[in-house]
Design goal:
This protein starts with 10 loop residues before the first helix and ends in a 6-residue tail after the last strand. It is an alpha+beta fold. The protein has a three-stranded antiparallel β-sheet. The chain has one domain. Strand 2 and strand 3 form a beta hairpin. It is rod-shaped. The protein has two helices and three strands.
Length: 134
């Protein structure tokens, strides 16, 4: 028959070590989620600014502004004007027509251990052209 161990003085050390490990995992997860939420808000703001600029100028050819916005925010995003009603092939949008912009960004963050998770993020906005083209 096996003897039961009556001395349990070392159990507390293992409990503390496991608790610290679990708390650190939760902290890593919370920090990653908060950074994703903040980045999503920044992408939405960038999308709104791109649509506002395109609406004021009546064109979807805004590469220089998008580049300056990318440098200012530090986010290397991609954008497209899918669904926009173009007046001609140069990207002009007639007065009152819709301009729809979609900004995409792919973020990679550390998971538990050596795992790297890649999350695609997308934000979209729309506006109306304020320029009349003859």
């Amino acid at each position: 028959m096996m003897k039961s161990i009556k001395n349990k003085r070392g159990e507390g050390y293992i409990d503390v070590a496991v608790t610290i490990m679990m708390v650190s995992f939760v902290l890593v997860f919370v920090v990653n989620v908060v950074s994703l939420v903040a980045l999503n808000q920044n992408l939405k703001t960038v999308t709104d600014q791109l649509v506002e600029y395109a609406s004021q100028h009546g064109t979807t050819a805004i590469d220089a502004y998008a580049e300056s916005l990318s440098e200012k925010t530090g986010i290397d995003f991609g954008y497209s004007f899918d669904g926009s009603t173009l007046y001609d092939s140069s990207g002009k949008v007639q007065l009152g027509d819709t301009i729809e912009c979609t900004v995409t960004y792919k973020i990679s963050f550390m998971g538990f251990g050596n795992a790297i998770h890649s999350v695609p993020m997308k934000a979209s906005a729309s506006g109306i052209s304020r320029v009349y083209w003859k």
